[in-house]
Every structure is written in C-alpha cells, then in structure tokens.
C-alpha cells in the first residue's frame, strides 16, 4: 500500500466490513465456540486478514479501514496490534446495522481519496484479477460491483412450500468489492439515512446512480457456515495466497 501523500494517480480507500454478528456461522459450529466468521482461522490465519491483505500491496490503495463490532473492538486491538501497525490499518467501531458501520467508516475517509471500495471481511477468496477489473470499471463508470449470474433454478418458498419458480433471466448474485467514486457513495449514504440495506449498490441505485456489473467467479464466496471454511481453504491454496500463517 502506498502510504505517502504525493498524488500519483487516483487514490482508493478500502473499507473492510467485519462487524456482523455471524449468527448462521456460529449456529453451524459443532464445537459451539462463539467465534465470528471474520475471525475464524483458515490455515491458522483469520479470515479478515486474507481479505485485507488482498488490498494492502496495491499501488492504487492509499487507505485501509476495517469496521469491527463494539463487542470485539478492545480484543481486536489487543490481539491484532502487529497486523494493524504493519498495514497502517484504521479500525472503526461498527454500528447496529451494516449501513451504520459503513457510514461510520465513510466519516474518516481522507479528503484526497477519489474512489471508495467496500468489501466483506468474510470474502477472503476474491482474486487480484477481479479487484483489478472492478477498480478499472469504477474508474470508467463511477460505480461498479462484482457479481455472478444466477445459474440454478430459483424457487420462492414460504413455510416450507414452493409458491413460485422465479425466472432467473437477468438475475445476478451480488459480491464485493463494490467500488464507487467518492462523491457517489457519500451522496448515496446521505440520501438513504433511514434505509436498511446489506448492499451498498442498492443505496446507490436508490439515489439514482447506475452501477455497472463486473462478472466474477463463483469462487469469490462469502463465508456463511463452517463448511465454507474448508471450501475457502481449497480456493486460497489454488490461488497460492495462503503463504503467511501464524
């Protein structure tokens, strides 16, 4: 990560969201240990660290921010002090909902930043090529996100019964990072103060901005259950990114 203040091109700030409650992940933990998915180990290295390191060495990333739940804040500072210092990582206390957490992070984005990327800490398998592609598209269009087309048959289910088969044509599953020109994301959050969303692109859409879709691999999974950890480990091994271990 470039830490000097001399502007060479366009600066990106990356917000890593790690403030969720991880209910489904904890419920699927057979050991009953209440570890959240962002802090679960893959090859003795926490999920969130894989995600942050994907952006750390990029020349176009000038600021790294991670949002952590208030319940985890003190522990996070104590346990990960070396990593925080090594990556010049800014740690922000999260809010009640995801939008609250991102809004808090936006408040400390530097004024010289041109673009802001928001990425889930629980997506450690995003590839460098995918980050390159979505950053490039955001530079062109102002707002872009990674996504994959829906390939399975989609059923709407209520009380355990199918009530509708949904036409999957033109349906895509959103991923992160989602990247926006600074002014677009700031205005999107300002105009959606009372809207709850798990997706930053939705807020931009609601504010009247077009968001481009960059096709991504389905390997950019979001850790949701314990089984996903095994799958992520395999993907990371194939990417040859799991070199640094504790």
CATH class: Alpha Beta
Q: What overall geometry do the principal axes of the alpha carbons give?
A: globular
The whole-angstrom Rg is 18 Å
CATH superfamily: Spore Coat Polysaccharide Biosynthesis Protein SpsA, Chain A
Describe the structure.
- The structure is a single chain.
- With 246 residues, this protein is an alpha/beta fold.
- It has one domain: Spore Coat Polysaccharide Biosynthesis Protein SpsA, Chain A.
- Helices cover 33% and strands 25% of the residues.
- The strands form 3 sheets. The protein has a 7-stranded mixed β-sheet with strand order 5-4-1-6-10-7-11, with helices on both faces. A two-stranded antiparallel ribbon has the order 2-3.
- A hairpin with a 2-residue loop joins strand 2 and strand 3.
- The longest helix has 14 residues.
- The C terminus is likely disordered.
What's the SSE blueprint?
Layout: E1 12-18, H1 23-27, E2 41-42, E3 45-46, H2 47-56, E4 61-68, H3 73-79, H4 81-86, E5 90-93, H5 98-106, E6 115-120, H6 128-141, E7 143-149, E8 154-158, E9 161-166, E10 172-181, H7 182-190, H8 200-206, E11 212-215, H9 226-239
Parallel strand pairs: 1-4, 1-6, 4-5, 7-11
Antiparallel strand pairs: 2-3, 6-10, 7-10, 8-9
């Amino acid at each position: 990560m470039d830490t000097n203040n001399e502007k060479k091109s366009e600066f990106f700030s990356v917000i890593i969201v790690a403030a969720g409650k991880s209910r489904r992940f904890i419920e699927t933990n057979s050991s009953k240990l209440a570890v959240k998915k962002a802090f679960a180990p893959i090859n003795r290295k926490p999920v969130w660290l894989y995600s942050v390191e994907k952006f750390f060495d990029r020349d176009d990333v000038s600021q790294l921010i991670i949002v952590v739940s208030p319940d985890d804040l003190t522990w996070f500072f104590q346990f990960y002090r070396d990593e925080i210092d090594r990556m010049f990582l800014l740690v922000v206390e999260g809010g009640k909902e995801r939008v609250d957490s991102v809004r808090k992070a936006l408040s400390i984005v530097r004024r010289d930043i041109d673009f802001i990327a928001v990425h889930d800490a629980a997506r450690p398998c995003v590839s460098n090529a995918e980050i390159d592609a979505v950053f490039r598209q955001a530079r062109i269009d102002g707002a872009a996100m990674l996504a994959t087309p829906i390939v399975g048959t989609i059923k709407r289910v209520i009380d355990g019964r199918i009530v509708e088969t949904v036409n999957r044509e033109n349906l895509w599953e959103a991923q992160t990072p989602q990247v926006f020109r600074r002014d677009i994301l700031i205005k999107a959050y300002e105009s959606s103060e009372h809207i709850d969303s798990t997706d930053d692109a939705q807020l931009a859409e609601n504010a009247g901005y077009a968001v481009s879709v960059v096709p991504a691999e389905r390997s950019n999974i979001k850790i949701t259950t314990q089984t996903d950890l095994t799958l992520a480990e395999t993907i990371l091994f194939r990417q040859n990114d799991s070199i640094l271990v504790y």
